[in-house]
Amino acid sequence: MSEHQQLVLIEITGQDGTTTLFVTAERREKAWIDGPIVGLYTRLRLTDAPQAKPEAMFLSRRAAKAGWTVDSHFGASGHPFHSHGFGARHSVPEILTQKIAALVDAEAPRAGLVEAIDQTNPLILPDQD
Fold first, then answer.
1. pLDDT score of 24 more than 50
2. Which residues of 13-22 are buried (b: 16+ CB within 10 A; e: fewer)?
């Protein structure tokens, strides 16, 4: 497992105001009953004010698969909206919004975490068989 890499610090302005998005990511592997799960594990922290506690989302994207999935989502108070482990797909996954997915996809190659990534094609990691 690699160290967390800060990918982006970006502000998104919408109808409800400005949200600051902090993103860190790492390559992760996990043993599973059907064989190892390999992919990217990403943490998002979202806040609408500098001193506010952020919401937190933990995302995964499996190698050779398209699309990000929200594994866990916690409110600013720590309330869990839902929580699953890295790469879990045993329940209905919450799919990440395309706008945020596109931001993460754009930054991952710059951080050297991937060989190829976009929203419609399978993820290709360095040294992936």
1. yes
2. eeeeeebbbb
